[in-house]
C-alpha cells in the first residue's frame, strides 16, 4: 500500500508546477502517502500549508527546508491530492481485495426476468400517455457567491507567484524568502504566513504594472549580459538611457522608478538610489522632449483617415496589416492615447450596434486573449510577433501604411497629394488622440461633447447631471460629423431638371426614446416613449410630460416595449424596431 501511495504522489509532484527539490522533499516525507494527507484535519490549502509549517520541527532536517520554502507549492499539492481522493480510495480498496464493497444483486427467477423483458419492450413500443414537457434550460449561475472577488483574488495570486519568482532569482539578495525565524520569536508557520501576506498584498492592477516593469528591466539586463543583482544606480541609469533611445513616453521612467522602490520593498532587496542626479536628469530630458511632442502632435488629415479605412476594407491587402491599421483607426475614433490603447485587455472589450466598448469580448475568440495588451507587434505585412506592439515600430508602420494608402486610394489633385504626404511624415503616436478632437473643434461642437469624447474627468456639471448614457453623446457627435462630411461632399448635385425627393433611410435624424423617471409611476410608465414627428420636445402619445422623462438614446431594444399610443402615432418607428 505504501508503494501504491508513493505512485499517486509521484504522479502529482511530476507536474511542471513543482520544482525538483520540492518533489524530492515530498516523496521523502510522510506526505507522500495520500491517505495520510487526506486524513489531516484541514479544509483548505492554506490550512494545510500552516499545518505542515507547525509540524516542521518533527520533520527530517534533510528535506525540511525544501518542503517549506514555497507555501504556494504546498497549497497546490494539497489541492491536487484532495481532487484525486475518490479515485485514490477506489484504487486502494481494489488493491486490498475488497473491490468497491458493493453487495451482489440477488438472483431472480426466469418468470421475473421474462416479465421484465416484456414490460421493457412494451414501454419502448407504446407511445406515452403523458409525454414529458420540455424544460427550458436555465442559465447556470456562478459556483461562488462572490465571482468578482474570486476573480480578483486569482489575479492577485498570479502576480504574487511572479513576484515570488523574482525573489527566487535574486537569491540571497532577497531577505524575504531567506529568513525563516527572526528576533521577535515568530515560528516558521507564522513567518510563512507573513511572507504569503506580503507577496499577495496590493491591488492586482498595481501589482501587474510594477512586476511587469521589473521583468522588462531584468530581460534587458540579461540581453546585455549584465548581472542584475546587486541593483545599483548605474544599472538604472543604463536602462533609462535604453528607454530614451527607444523614444519612450514621458511617464515611463517615473513609473519605472516607482516600480523599483515597490519591488525592492516587497522582497526586502536593498533599494538603490532612485533619486540619483543622473537618473533624474535623463527623466527631465525625456519629459521635456516627449511632452512637447504630445502637445504639438498634428492630427491625421481626414483624407488620410479615409484612405486608411479603404485599406482596412480591401481584402487584397494582408490580413495582419489590415488588423494593425484597424487598431489605429480605433484609437482615432475613440481619441485614445497610444499607451492606453496598447494596454487595453482584449477580454474586456465588447461589440454592440453603437460601437465597441469595455465589457466581455465574444467576437474575438480565434486566439488566446488572456494577455494584458491589445495589439501584438507587427513583424511583417503578413505576420505578428508574440510581443506587444512597440512604440517606434508602430509609428513607422503607421507612416508606411498611410503613404501606401494615399498612393492606392487617394483621388485628388497632385498638390493636395504632396501636402498630405508631407503631413504623414509629421505624424506621431499622439496624432490619433487629437484627430477627432481637432475635427470636433473645427466643426463647432459643444464643450460637453468634446469633453466626453476626450474622456476628461469634468466634462461639465449639466452633462453629468442629465446624461444617463454618456457614450451616446460622443457617438452622436461622430455620426453628425460624418453626416456633415457627406452633405458637404455629396457627389450628386441638384439641377433645375432633377428633383431629389428620395428618402434616405440611413439618415442619422432618428427618433429619440424616453423613459419616465420622475413623479409617481405605474407598471405601464416603465415602457419606452418616442418623440413626436413634428416636435422633438413632445412625446408622440401625449400622455406623459417629457420633463418627467429621461432621454435613453435613439435605440429601441424591441418594438414590444414601446408605448402602444406612441406606436400608433409613429408607425415608422415600429417598422424600424421590427426590422
Notable traits:
extended, 53% helix, DNA polymerase, domain 1, mainly alpha, two-stranded antiparallel sheet, 25 helices, Integrase_recombinase_N, single chain, 4 domains, 579 residues, disordered N terminus
Task: Describe the fold and architecture.
By secondary structure, this protein is mainly alpha-helical. The chain has 4 domains: 94 residues; 117 residues, Orthogonal Bundle (DNA polymerase, domain 1); 132 residues, no CATH class; 66 residues, no CATH class. The protein has 25 helices and 7 strands. Strands 6-5-7 form a 3-stranded antiparallel sheet, with no helix packed on it. The chain is extended, with a radius of gyration of 33 Å. The N terminus is likely disordered.
Strand-residue proportion: under 5%
Poorly predicted sequence stretches spanning 5 or more consecutive residues: 1-5, 358-366, 459-470, 502-508
- From the alpha-carbon coordinates, what is the Rg to the nearest angstrom? 33 Å
Query: What structural class do the secondary elements suggest?
Result: mainly alpha
**Mean pLDDT over the residues:** 76
Overall outline: extended
The biggest beta sheet reads: 3 strands, antiparallel
InterPro entries: Integrase_recombinase_N
Keywords: DNA-binding
GO molecular function, one term: DNA binding
List the helices and strands and how they pair.
Layout: H1 2-13, H2 20-28, H3 34-39, H4 45-54, H5 61-68, H6 71-83, H7 85-95, H8 110-125, H9 147-170, H10 188-200, H11 204-223, H12 233-245, H13 252-266, H14 277-295, H15 302-313, H16 319-334, H17 338-342, E1 349-351, E2 356-358, E3 376-378, E4 384-388, H18 391-409, H19 414-425, H20 431-442, H21 447-453, H22 461-466, H23 472-488, E5 513-516, E6 529-530, E7 549-553, H24 564-569, H25 571-578
Antiparallel strand pairs: 1-2, 3-4, 5-6, 5-7
Helix pairs in contact: 1-2, 2-5, 4-6, 4-10, 9-11, 11-13, 12-14, 15-16, 15-18, 16-20, 18-19, 21-23
Amino acid at each position: 500500500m505504501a508503494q501504491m501511495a508513493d505512485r499517486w504522489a509521484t504522479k502529482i509532484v511530476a507536474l511542471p508546477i513543482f520544482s525538483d527539490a520540492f518533489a524530492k522533499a515530498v516523496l521523502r516525507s510522510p506526505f507522500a502517502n495520500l491517505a495520510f494527507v487526506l486524513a489531516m484535519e484541514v479544509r483548505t490549502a492554506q490550512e494545510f500549508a500552516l499545518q505542515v509549517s507547525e509540524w516542521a520541527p518533527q520533520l527530517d532536517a534533510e528535506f525540511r527546508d525544501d518542503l517549506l520554502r514555497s507555501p504556494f507549492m504546498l497549497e497546490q499539492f494539497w489541492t491536487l491530492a484532495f481532487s484525486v481522493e475518490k479515485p485514490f480510495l477506489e484504487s486502494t480498496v481494489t488493491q486490498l481485495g475488497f473491490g468497491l464493497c458493493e453487495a451482489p444483486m440477488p438472483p431472480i427467477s426466469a418468470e421475473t426476468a421474462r416479465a421484465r423483458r416484456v414490460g421493457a419492450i412494451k414501454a419502448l413500443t407504446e407511445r406515452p400517455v403523458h409525454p414529458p414537457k420540455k424544460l427550458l434550460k436555465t442559465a447556470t449561475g456562478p459556483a461562488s457567491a462572490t465571482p468578482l472577488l474570486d476573480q480578483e483574488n486569482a489575479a492577485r495570486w498570479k502576480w504574487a507567484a511572479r513576484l515570488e519568482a523574482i525573489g527566487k532569482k535574486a537569491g540571497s539578495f532577497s531577505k524575504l524568502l531567506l529568513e525563516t525565524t527572526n528576533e521577535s520569536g515568530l515560528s516558521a508557520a507564522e513567518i510563512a504566513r507573513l511572507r504569503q501576506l506580503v507577496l499577495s498584498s496590493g491591488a492586482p492592477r498595481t501589482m501587474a504594472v510594477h512586476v511587469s516593469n521589473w521583468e522588462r528591466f531584468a530581460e534587458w539586463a540579461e540581453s546585455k549580459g549584465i548581472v542584475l543583482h546587486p541593483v545599483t544606480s548605474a544599472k538604472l541609469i543604463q536602462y533609462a538611457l535604453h528607454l530614451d533611445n527607444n523614444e519612450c513616453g514621458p511617464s515611463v521612467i517615473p513609473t519605472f522608478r516607482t516600480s523599483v522602490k515597490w519591488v525592492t520593498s516587497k522582497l526586502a532587496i536593498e533599494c538603490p538610489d532612485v533619486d540619483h542626479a543622473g537618473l533624474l536628469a535623463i527623466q527631465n530630458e525625456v519629459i521635456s522632449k516627449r511632452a512637447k511632442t504630445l502637445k504639438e502632435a498634428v492630427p491625421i488629415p481626414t483624407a488620410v483617415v479615409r484612405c486608411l479605412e479603404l485599406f482596412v476594407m480591401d481584402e487584397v491587402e494582408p490580413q495582419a496589416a489590415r488588423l494593425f491599421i484597424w487598431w489605429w483607426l480605433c484609437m482615432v475614433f475613440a481619441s485614445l492615447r497610444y499607451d492606453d490603447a496598447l494596454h487595453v485587455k482584449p477580454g474586456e472589450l465588447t461589440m454592440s450596434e453603437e460601437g465597441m466598448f469595455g465589457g466581455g469580448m465574444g467576437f474575438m475568440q480565434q486566439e488566446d486573449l488572456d494577455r494584458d495588451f491589445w495589439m501584438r507587434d507587427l513583424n511583417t505585412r503578413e505576420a505578428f510577433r508574440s510581443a506587444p506592439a512597440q512604440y517606434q515600430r508602430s509609428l513607422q508602420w503607421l507612416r508606411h501604411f498611410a503613404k501606401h494608402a494615399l498612393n492606392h486610394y487617394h483621388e485628388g489633385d497632385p498638390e493636395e497629394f504632396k501636402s498630405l504626404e508631407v503631413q504623414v511624415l509629421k505624424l506621431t503616436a499622439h496624432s490619433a488622440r487629437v484627430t477627432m478632437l481637432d475635427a470636433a473643434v473645427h466643426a463647432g461642437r459643444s464643450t460637453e461633447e468634446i469633453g466626453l469624447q476626450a474622456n476628461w474627468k469634468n466634462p461639465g456639471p449639466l452633462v453629468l447631471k442629465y446624461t444617463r448614457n454618456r457614450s451616446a453623446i460622443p457617438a452622436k457627435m461622430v455620426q453628425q460629423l460624418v453626416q456633415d462630411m457627406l452633405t458637404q461632399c455629396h457627389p450628386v448635385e441638384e439641377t433645375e431638371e432633377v428633383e431629389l425627393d428620395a428618402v434616405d433611410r440611413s439618415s442619422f435624424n432618428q427618433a429619440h426614446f424616453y423613459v419616465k423617471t420622475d413623479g409617481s409611476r405605474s407598471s405601464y410608465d416603465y415602457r419606452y416613449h418616442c418623440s413626436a414627428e413634428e416636435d422633438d420636445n413632445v412625446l408622440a402619445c401625449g400622455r406623459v410630460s417629457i420633463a418627467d422623462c429621461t432621454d435613453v438614446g435613439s435605440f429601441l431594444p424591441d418594438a414590444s416595449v414601446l408605448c402602444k399610443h406612441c406606436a400608433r402615432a409613429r408607425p415608422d418607428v415600429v417598422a424600424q424596431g421590427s426590422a
